[in-house]
Predict the structure.
Amino acid sequence: MTIFETNISSFVVNFFKENLNKIDTTQNSNILLKKICGIKSFFRNSEELTEFKNKIENYTDTFEEPNRRAYGDFQTNEDLANNVVKHLIQQGKHPELLIEPTCGKGRFIIAALEHFQTLKKVIGVEIYYPYVWETKLGILELYLKDKSLPKAEIEIIHEDIFNFDFATIAKEHKHLNLLVIGNPPWVTNSELGALDVKNLPRKSNFKKHNGIDAITGKGNFDIAEYISLQILKYFDKQEGAFAFLVKNSVVKNIIFDQKELKHNIGSIQKLNIDAKREFNVSVDACLFLTAFNSKPEFICTEIDFYSKEDKTEFGWSDNKFVYSITNYQKAESIDGKCPFVWRQGMKHDCSKIMELDRFNGHYINGFRQEVNPEKNLLFGILKSSDLKKEVVDKYRKTTIVTQKRVGQDTSYIKREYPLTYDYLNANREYFDRRKSSIYRGKPPFSIFGIGDYSFAKYKVAISGMYKRTTFSLVLPENGKPLMLDDTCYFIGFDTLKKAQVAQKILNSSIVQDFIKSIIFPDAKRPITKDILMRIDIQKAYRLIQLEKELPKEWEEFDNMLKNKNKPSNQMTLF
């Protein structure tokens, strides 16, 4: 049956039916229930008690739980909660105070009450009212079935976690050994905002991102990360431990920021779980475990939760943030600044109009309409999935390139390419719908990620979206350069020889080992411009013996590097 839209077992229903005469007032009811299960203020007021008694006396069918997965609400299953608690016991954790923010159905609290013998106080916080009741009823059932379990004082608080007073809790219980445990929402602040959810952190750029970073995505953050940082802020000087189920990206961000924030945490572990198996969701997730009141540490050990097999140590090696400390130390000699500027491909956010398929000399847009623009503004375009071979000289799609530089006036298209203009203008509504602020106030049909470098005939490119770390040589078609989209990164060259040498260097073992030591393979975009700009090609070039394989090309490339500070060199042009 259901109480307050909450599932309740027949076992608990029968208990209340047998004791209806004892739950006559709020005070008497709370005294009885606290004696049985330790929950303080089981009923908040007489109205809640009256409604509860009416539900008990009028049995109803089982309530079907609403789907809250859209809110990042992936409830911890009973087996996983028990296994996490058992792992903590094996690690020597014996908490006296347990806090679970966003406690949901209380699976962690129930597992902790069943297995920890040392608990004196338990605090659960939950915004969703039915879950508050499911937690309380689950705790009651636990103690009704096993009266021998030691009892703690328990508070299950119906509260918005972003307004919860952690500071007072920390001050009042600083003498107790603490465990903060939980499974906070696996969703970002912008996703919750789009769902019009009211319980959000106060609007703030809490990571202090500046300018374009704040606009284009770095100002977005995981709710779980926000909650984790609040916990570390208030409790990191208290004896105890922290154990959260979170996405891998949350742990990576916390360890990255640890260099600056220096939270008092140590023995940091990331225990990878199978989220598909545990939550039926395709995301990389883990148990983030660390000890409070420690000398600040900056390295995290990555472990498989099930086998307990060590995978790697990631974090800070001197002043560099890397995925594998061990592998990085073998290749760190080339960690520096790339003499070339790595560029991201072009961005237009209007693929159904701008990108065309070729069929027997005809061009078809994303709406399966035939298009006949002038060919001067048509270029082949490559996406991440096209960069699978060492040499790429063919493409699946073409794109209309409306500008040679960002912000260029596009009125010339109407004069010089009327067919292209008529096509673009007829579909102007699609351009006007583009949501990104980068297009505001720009000429009609504007694109981004475009410049002189885009028109380099020869490019060495890599996908930003895949774990594959090898670089492709991109050749022109009939002398016309191929473009890349914004999921790719590239450097451009004016001669084939220079491009070939650059590719050889980038695909050498030392560069490949270096890249694999600093990228996080589970990242949404493993390869980024920041990663590529750390490859000191000049140092790598000195360490390998490529001159024996490509003597003339090597000499030409060497001369280019020696003159890299001159304004006319290739690195400035492309």
Remarks:
- The radius of gyration is 30 Å.
- The mean pLDDT is 89.
- Residues 69-260+270-292 form a domain with the Rossmann fold fold (CATH 3.40.50.150).
- The chain has three domains: 2-57, 69-260+270-292, 343-402+447-573.
